[in-house]
Amino acid sequence: MADQKVVVIGGGLAGLACSMQLAESGTKVQLVSLVPVKRSHSVCAQGGINAVNDSTRKEGDSEYLHLDDTVYGGDFLANQPPIKEMCDWGPGIIDLLDRMGVPFNRTVEGHRDQRRFGGTMFKRTAFAGATTGQQLIYALDEQVRFWESKGSIEKFEYYDFLGPVLDDKGVCRGAVIQNLFDMQVRTLPADVLVLATGGCGLVFGRSTMSMVCSGSACARVHRAGVGYANGEFIQVHPTAIPGTDKLRLMSESARGEGGRVWVPKKPGDDRDPVNIPTDERYYFLEERYPKYGNLVPRDIATREIFSVCVEQGLSVEQDKLCVYLDVSELPPTTLHKLDGILEIYEKFQGVNPREVPMKIFPAVHYSMGGLWVDFEKNEQTGGLVKGSVRNQHTSVPGIFAIGEADYQYHGANRLGANSLLSCIFTGMFVAPSLRNYLAGLSEGTAADQPASLYEKAAADHMAEHEALRNMSGPENPYHLHNELGDVMTRNCTVIRHNQPLTETVEKIIELIDRYKSIGLADQGGWTNQNLIFARSLADMLLLARNIAQGALQRDECRGAHEKPDFRIPAPDADSPAELHKQAKEWCKAFKTKNDKWLKTTVAEYSADGPKMKYEPVDLSLVPVRPRTYGLKGAEVIEQVWQEMTAGDADSSKPVATK
Amino acid sequence: MASTIHIQVKRQDGPDKSARFETFDIDYEPGMNCTTLLQRIAATPVTTDGKQTSPVAYDACCLEEICGACTMVVNGKVRQACTALVDDLIKESPDLITLAPMTKFSTVRDLVVDRRRMFESLKRVSAWVELDDYSDRGASALVRPEDQEEAYPMSRCMTCGCCVEACPQFNEKSDFLGPQAITQAIMFNEHPVGGMTATKRLTALMEPGGIADCGNAQACVEVCPKEVPLLRGLAKAGRQTTLHAIKSFLSK
Predict the structure, then answer these.
(1) What is the rounded distance in angstroms from the CA atom of residue A394 to the CA atom of residue A398?
(2) Do A587 and A517 share a structural domain?
(3) Start-to-end Cα distance in chain B
(4) Per-residue pLDDT tens for B194-225?
(5) Containing structural domain, residue A642
(6) CATH code, B95
(7) In sequence order, what DSSP letters do the residues of A16-44 get, joined into one string?
(8) Which of A21, A111, A210 is facing B62, going by the closest CB pair?
(9) Contact, B123 vs A146, CB < 8 A?
(10) What CATH number does residue A531 fall under?
(11) A650 pLDDT more than 60
(12) Fewer C-beta within 10 Å: chain A N or C terminus?
């Protein structure tokens, strides 16, 4: 028992939070990361982290409302008990981060300042300038370094995770990793493996994600039997700037601080935006969503940008989805809070956004889907049973997943500033579950396994490595990656149609086939980045197929997954009686759609492509309702839905399924 | 505008191998940065004279100049490859863009260097706030907005290595902590709870390789991409260690 340890793959916020929490409770950790953990993708998070706070409570806010905003923002696709637990933990997590020295912005009196983010009416978001992710990861990195100096955590930086070691019963007994400098393969025997490896933006070629976000580690445990859930739910952030190497985020905090999104009313208006008078500007989010304004959830903002650019031809740049994000009218004290992102814009675009409206574009940003994980509901609180070995546990015994790598917390669309919370929450909350799992192992531990189990695992991976290294076919892995990114971005992002999705699946199958005849320009055995990239491309292809197949099969609109062919037509009649009748039809269609599709997609790996199954969602806390966000004409739908579901507990509160 | 970009890369196959130079021609695209150039080379690793070679090894992660990974020497100046924009670089040097690894660390391969020493330095100065535990103990003390404004710029240090590359005192033979670690030590000394363990950090700063090794060349602050107030950190480190030394002497 004493020498049992946990291997954590990934050193972003989730992996670091998990490692420090385990170290504190006396469990040894081996932490594996592609990059020095301080450089993990969490640094890119900008705007802040959500939690109920003293100021919002005064306005009537509560943990329940945070849950409600998260569930509603995610279009009800997420299991609700894990979200409840997360929201309950929020305030304590922010206090803890504060104690660690995170330089959160302050009010005059010295309290933490908060800003508003999308999908809520409350200012729940604590922030450190516009580089909150960086500041949070530094705090956790420092804590982990403290435990490293004590000998409780051992880091393996510049290592690639090649796959889990499973015993003959399919139980996880460790990990196979490869040093990215000398390319040596080794095994880490352990009874618990935690995947904290983030998202898979590279599947789309260029995204706002970092160069390490290929999803490889998730694909590698998926191949070993872990389900991949809700892969088709990919968040396209409304505001990013394009680049030849990647797309760069312009945080929602720009709008949280008062930034406004607009296009010129006249198509093709080529005047300098500062010379376009206010009455010739179309503030389309404010006009279409009077209640939430510029802070509608991201999926909606992105679709509205698509709508004004493609359907109305009002894009600021021809043939692109480009609108203005304008902070030029904000006071200097407010702009100061946004310095972190305004510097990025200025450095890359060469224009000062404090004076000139920014040109921004939607970009792939986050994966709501990820590794399937279990949970155990606490029947008293409605949240989770703390320490239950089911929490965050994948379908393979001993493999757990946390952070963006899991699918659990954001449903069909993530609210801004909830990701930092879900990462730190899952990292901390899973720790006692891991310890209980270790304590409860009845049939021996990793230490009892024969050495041959590990020798074989390492030898198998080394053989794969050698086979890949010697590939000398005509296909270029970088070109295949470009083709993958192009087709995924074109057909599998903001708006989806079944014909192009079918073609996308076919294209991916073609790429998988062509991958078999790739050639490596570098066949050396030292720091071979060519090989590491080529290996991750196979993983991207696997995840791409899950994403595209899941999108193809899901014939509905939900959150970030928008299929216009399956939209329920909005009521538009003038007469109240007719409008009411239409709303009734709408609600009936809405109910039918939920009966069929309010389900989690779970892809099981097979060599012939994913096998999809659909699981019920635990909706035991917040009754399902139409997601309207104060869209004009929505009141009547909400009213009719209330009438329909009153006294009909079954339709509004489906039975919990876990 | 040039339609082809000429790039010279300093290459080295491994730590014990000799260095060589290779040049590449890449088609110009608007908005390109050095990372894009390296991505293009990786996709088609053929030198200007038509020789097939291996892709150039390089570090890159966020590409937003916030992770610190892609630090290298571009046109003779240490900086991040992601924010080194081709349009600006060809103004500096119209005929050739040069990429080389940082010189103060051992080269792993090509542009990849081993910067682990910087993280070890953070350990030497106990760059963390030591907490009793991670339980929920409620909110911490109030913080004056001015104090946050002081701490935040120091906390933006991404351990990228620019400052130590520029520092004449930092090299493989000396064990100088470098401006980044010293400034982090000061940041934690000024934190209300971090300050409770200031003695530990001051002791480390007074050991060999500590603040006394700073030659006051002030080169570090010139190259810091995040405008971390390194000079203030170094000056405070000097003052705090002097005071600490006097106090220790008087209490003997």
Answers:
(1) 8
(2) no
(3) 70
(4) 999 999 999 999 999 999 999 999 999 999 99
(5) 574-612+620-652
(6) 3.10.20.30
(7) HHHHHHHHHTT-EEEEEESS-GGGSGGGG
(8) A210
(9) no
(10) 1.20.58.100
(11) no
(12) N
Q: What's the domain range around B217?
A: 116-131+139-250
Last residue of a domain, one of A316, A345, A365: A365
Residues A402 and A486 in one domain: no
* Chain B interface includes A146 (CB < 8 A): yes
State pLDDT tens for residues A209-233.
999 999 999 999 999 999 999 999 9
Residue of chain A whose alpha carbon sits nearest to that of B126: A146
Q: Which of A298, A414, A496, A558 is catalytic?
A: A298
Residue A146: predicted pLDDT: 98
**Residues linked to residue B113 through DSSP beta bridges, in sequence order:** B107
pLDDT in tens, A426-471: 999 999 999 999 999 987 899 999 999 999 999 999 999 999 999 9
Mutation target to probe the A interface, by most A beta carbons within 10 A, among B33, B58, B128, B190 is B128
- Taking only the tens place, the pLDDT of each residue in B221-237 is 999 999 999 999 999 99
Question: Are A18 and A68 contained in the same domain?
Answer: yes
| Same-domain pairing of A426 and A532 | no
Residue A216 lies in a domain: yes
Of A480, A477, A471, the residue nearest A507 (C-alpha): A480
Which of A142-151, A320-329, A646-655, B38-47 shows the lowest per-residue confidence on average (mean pLDDT)? A646-655
Q: What is the CATH number of the domain that holds B164?
A: 1.10.1060.10
DSSP letters, A97-143, are: HHHTT----B-TTSSBPEE--TT-SS--EE-STT-HHHHHHHHHHHH
Q: Does residue A464 form part of some domain?
A: no
A298 and A442 within one domain:
no
Measured CA to CA in angstroms, residue B92 lies from A305, B63, B88, B240 at distances of 38, 22, 7, 41
Please write the tens of the pLDDT for every residue from B112-124.
999 999 999 999 9
Mean pLDDT of chain B: 96
Residue A652, pLDDT > 80, answer no
Taking Cα atoms as reference points, which of A487, A429, A419 lies closest to residue A209? A419
Number of domains in chain B: 2
The model's pLDDT over B12-34, given as tens digits with 9 standing for 90+, comes to: 999 999 999 999 999 999 999 99
Chain B residues whose beta carbon lies within 8 Å of the beta carbon of residue A250: none
Asked whether residue A166 falls in the same domain as residue A267, the answer is: no
**What is the mean predicted confidence (pLDDT) over A2-9?**
86
Residue A247 CB partners (closer than 8 Å, separation 6+): A206, A207, A208, A240, A241, A361, A363, A364
Respond yes or no: is residue A260 known to be catalytic: no
- B147 and B88 within one domain: no
- Out of A35, A105, A245, name the one closest to residue B63 (CB): A245
Question: Which of A155, A222, A141, A135 lies closest to A9 in space, CA to CA?
Answer: A155
Nearest CA in chain B to A337: B149
Verify whether the Cβ–Cβ distance B140 to A95 is below 8 Å: yes
Q: What is the mean pLDDT of chain A?
A: 95
**Domain match, B124 and B101 both:** no
Please indicate, yes or no, whether residues A123 and A258 belong to a single structural domain of this protein: no
Indicate if B13 and B121 belong to the same structural domain.
Answer: no
- Angle, in degrees to the nearest 10, between helices A132-149 and B116-124: 70
Assess whether pLDDT exceeds 50 at residue A489: yes
- Say if A465 falls within a structural domain: no
> Does the beta carbon of A111 lie under 8 angstroms from any beta carbon of chain B?
yes
Residues B149 and B85 in one domain: no
> Does residue B222 share a domain with residue B151?
yes
Give me the residue from B44, B65, B129 closest to A347, CB to CB. Answer: B65
How far is Cα A96 from Cα A74, in angstroms, rounded to an integer?
Answer: 27
> Both ends of chain A: CA-CA distance in Å?
31
- Residue A174 resides in a domain: yes
Number of domains in chain A: 4
Which of A100, A107, A127, A140 would best serve as a mutation to test chain B binding (most B beta carbons within 10 A)? A100
At A632, the pLDDT band (50, 70, 90 cuts) reads low
